[in-house]
From TrEMBL:
Family: Belongs to the methyltransferase superfamily. RsmH family.
CDD domains hit by this protein: AdoMet_MTases
Protein known as: Ribosomal RNA small subunit methyltransferase H
Enzyme nomenclature, EC number: 2.1.1.199
GO MF term set: rRNA (cytosine-N4-)-methyltransferase activity
Coiled coil: none
């Protein structure tokens, strides 16, 4: 386990799917700590890297500074991939050969005990914003302000309806006594939740639902895939890695729509990690990669 950097998933699969050609342009729309970007640069591609989290962008910049000899082929922008069209135009990165999305957060987000992404530090604020400078609503705000039906809908992103109803009831009860503010408050609320997935901590899926809602992760995907597809040159490829069934279904449906109007499916079933990667990197277990060619 590499403690310093996020462990990049499906590296060989992504490199092969992107068909990297020397001097051609690519967009890494979820830069993270530049794991995939370094591979593309290593094969001679030019990369525009987009990262929403300013802290993560700094980590990526430092890593590239240290580990990549020739940085002229790489341009990094802080922003949301929902603005991929504007960012690409502003960077003169139009008609690209390949675009990669590797959704979610990094190990570094989960290990950052101050940001509330994981339940490790019960005293941390329940924040979970990927970009605290532009996003106003924290996880605790949602749990304190949403109506009952809205809370149920939020938790149904990752939980079955019965569990979502159960946890909503606990939240309504808890916030009557005092506002929900810390990671520990939500951990306590989750105690006794029967998770439908064995082996998972009872707080894992509720925390994931709150994170997805705080960062509008599903709407962002829906809004962005068409913009990304438009940026591809003919024969260009869209490579998308998702980690959650609700993400994957959005990708699958978008790909279906495009295939019906002439795009080519490169993967007929999602590509998943092989034995060695599954052993080495726990996160790779839920990774699903789909590839589409324009
Ligand atoms: C799974 S990580 C990517 C890891 C990266 N492929 C690597 O190998 O280092 C996902 C990254 O996307 C970023 N991200 C999430 N939502 C985003 C958005 N709307 N726009 C841009 N970046 C986003 C997260 O902050 C996180 O760093």
């Amino acid at each position: 386990m590499n403690d310093k950097y996020h462990e990049t998933v499906l590296v060989e699969e992504v490199v092969s799917a992107l068909h990297i050609e020397k001097g051609k342009k690519y967009i890494d729309a979820t830069l993270g700590n530049a794991g995939h970007t370094m591979e593309i640069l290593g094969k001679g591609g030019q990369v525009l890297g987009i990262e929403i989290d300013p802290k993560m962008l700094t980590i990526a910049e430092k890593r590239l500074e240290k580990e990549v000899v020739d940085k002229k082929n790489c341009k990094l922008v802080q922003g949301s991939f929902t603005d991929i069209d504007k960012i690409a135009h502003g960077s003169k990165w139009e008609k690209v050969k390949g675009i990669l999305f590797d959704f979610g957060v990094t190990n570094l987000h989960l290990k950052d005990s101050e940001r509330g992404f994981s339940f490790g530090n019960s005293e941390a604020p329940l924040d979970m914003r990927m970009d605290p400078e532009t996003q106003g609503v924290k996880g605790s705000d949602l749990l304190n302000l949403l109506r009952e039906d809205q809370l149920r809908e939020l938790f149904e992103i990752t939980l079955d309806p019965g569990s979502a109803k159960w946890i909503t009831g606990r939240i309504l009860h808890s916030r009557e006594a005092k506002p929900i503010e810390k990671v520990g408050d939500l951990v306590e609320i989750c105690q006794g939740l029967r998770s439908s997935k064995t082996g998972l901590n009872e707080a894992t899926l509720p925390f994931l639902a709150v994170r997805i809602a705080v960062n509008s992760e599903l709407t962002n995907i829906k809004e962005t895939l068409p913009k990304a597809f438009d940026l591809l040159e003919k024969g260009g490829r869209l490579v998308v890695i998702s980690f959650h069934s609700k993400e994957d279904v959005l990708v699958k449906n978008f790909f279906k729509e495009k295939i019906a109007s002439g795009a080519h499916a490169i993967t007929f079933r999602p590509v998943t990690a092989g034995g060695a990667e599954l052993e080495a990197n726990k996160r790779s277990r839920s990774a699903k990669m789909r590839v589409l060619e324009k």
